[in-house]
Amino acid sequence: MPDVSAVVVTYNAAPWIERSLDSLSGTGAEVIVVDNGSTDGTLDIVREKFPEARLLEQENRGFGAGNNAGMRVAAGRYFLLLNPDAWLSDGALQKIVVFADEHPEAAVVGPRLLNPDGSLQRSVRGYPTPWRIATEYFFLRKLAPRSRALNSLFGAGFDHESVREVDYLFGACLLVRREAVDSVGGFDEEFFLMSEETDWCYRFRQAGWSVFFYPGAEAYHVVGASLNPAQFKRIVRGHLQFLSKHRGAPEAERARRVMLWGLRLRGLLFRGERGRAYRETAQWLGSGNTAALLESPR
């Protein structure tokens, strides 16, 4: 049995998939690529350049569903869930595994994430609440950048320099213990894209497991330069889904109203693609209550 099974879920990932899979070469990890219906040549790259990888093809049922499919056929005692636009630094996988072995209570361990230029990508997050959402959507955290009360959604300004137990981590690169997955189940496939890792980490922690940020290992991750309306709507929908599932309908409805008025404000202040994303998402938020919105097409 390998120590680690790496699962990489792809959907039109041709620009980055080669670098992602190259970073797994020589690590001893079992490599499983789950393709969600790519049409841009991703499959050809995987077949031609990484014949040793196990390739699963399926319809696009979401990011969490893709990872679940990979984990179901994986043999490792750990799963490395790696985005196709992310890649490991040299020796990172071994370091994360050593840390996880030293912390048997850890369900999830995430390395420090870097942007392609080597700058820090902040990956520590706090669970969304109406108040925490308000601190972001109404610019309140800008008033006191060092305040924990106004910065909890983004890990309270954590400097990403020390080991820390956290609410959840941005899901570009996560080492997950098989035993923990067996105890709580895989991703909730009702989360198509965005907030699936928030829900998963919450379930792990509710079951008594821990989620750790570990800066002793690093991975690089590409973040899109523009925020388009479809992408932003998924972020907002994910907040509503998480709160509705774990905090109840009234809490989710409070968050909907906070986001609605916050995005209406932002839509007035921002122009271009970002402003359009805010305005279109606000229009969607104002079209019904939380229950109706979550029943609408994704």
List keywords for this structure.
298 residues; alpha/beta; Spore Coat Polysaccharide Biosynthesis Protein SpsA, Chain A; ten-stranded mixed beta sheet; two-stranded antiparallel sheet
Strand content: 15-25%
Overall tally of structural domains: 2
The CATH architecture category of the largest domain equals Alpha-Beta Complex
Oligomer state of the chains in this structure: single chain
Classify the fold: give the CATH topology of the largest domain: Spore Coat Polysaccharide Biosynthesis Protein SpsA, Chain A
N-end to C-end Cα span: 38 Å
Radius of gyration: 19 Å
Given as residue ranges, the uncertain stretches (5+ residues, pLDDT < 50) are none
How would you describe this protein?
The chain is an alpha/beta fold. The chain has 2 domains: 4-123 and 160-221, Spore Coat Polysaccharide Biosynthesis Protein SpsA, Chain A (Alpha-Beta Complex); 229-295, no CATH class. 41% of the residues lie in helices and 20% in strands. The strands form 2 sheets. Strands 1, 2, 3, 4, 5, 6, 7, 9, 11 and 12 form a 10-stranded mixed sheet that branches. The protein has a two-stranded antiparallel ribbon with strand order 8-10. Strand 1, helix 1 (17-22) and strand 2 (30-35) form a beta-alpha-beta unit. Helix 5 (130-137) runs parallel beside helix 9 (249-269), helix 8 runs parallel beside helix 10 (272-285) and helix 9 (249-269) runs antiparallel to helix 10. The chain is globular, with a radius of gyration of 19 Å.
